[in-house]
Recover the amino acids of this structure.
C-alpha cells in the first residue's frame, strides 16, 4: 500500500475568559486559546496533517474562519468530519505524532486522554497516536506564556 505523510502546525494566543482545550481535553488554566473555533491547536495541527497526507487541502479550505457555521466550533466534531473525509477519499490513517509547545500548563497528566480523543475522532487506536510536549525555553511569545503551538505529522495509506 502506498503511504503518504502530512505535516500540520497551528498557534493561538492565550486569552482571558476562554476555556483551554488541547487535544480535545479541557484543562484547568487561567487562560484559554483565542480562536474562531475553540482554538484547540493540537487538534488543528492533527487535522492539517491528516488532510495533507490525503492530499485534501488544509483545515481552512474545509472549515473557513469567515463562515459563521464554525464560530465557536468544537474541534472534536471537526476532527470526526476530517476523519470521514479522509476515509471517503480512500485513505486510512496509520499513525499520528504530535507535539504541543507551551510553557504552561504541563500536559503530562492529560496525554492519555488526548491520545484517546484523537484516536476516537479519527477512528484509529490510541496506540496509533503519539502526543508529546516541549517548552520554548522562554523564547518568543510561546516562551513568555502568551501562546501555545502544536506540530503534527500524519502517515496515511490508501
Amino acid at each position: 500500500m502506498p503511504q503518504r505523510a502530512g505535516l500540520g502546525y497551528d498557534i493561538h494566543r492565550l486569552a482571558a475568559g476562554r476555556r483551554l482545550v488541547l487535544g480535545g481535553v479541557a484543562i484547568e488554566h487561567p487562560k484559554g486559546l483565542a480562536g474562531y473555533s475553540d482554538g484547540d491547536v493540537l487538534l488543528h495541527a492533527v487535522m492539517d496533517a491528516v488532510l495533507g497526507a490525503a492530499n485534501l487541502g488544509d483545515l481552512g479550505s474545509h472549515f473557513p474562519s469567515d463562515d459563521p457555521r464554525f464560530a465557536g466550533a468544537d474541534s472534536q466534531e471537526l476532527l470526526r468530519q476530517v476523519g470521514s473525509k479522509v476515509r471517503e477519499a480512500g485513505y486510512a490513517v496509520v499513525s499520528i505524532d504530535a507535539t504541543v509547545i507551551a510553557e504552561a500548563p504541563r500536559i503530562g497528566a492529560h496525554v492519555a486522554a488526548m491520545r484517546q480523543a484523537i484516536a476516537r475522532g479519527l477512528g484509529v487506536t490510541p496506540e496509533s497516536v503519539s502526543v508529546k510536549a516541549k517548552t520554548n525555553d522562554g523564547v518568543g511569545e510561546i516562551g513568555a506564556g502568551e501562546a501555545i503551538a502544536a506540530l503534527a505529522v500524519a502517515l496515511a495509506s490508501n
Remarks:
- The chain is about 30% helix and 30% strand.
- The chain has a mean pLDDT of 95.
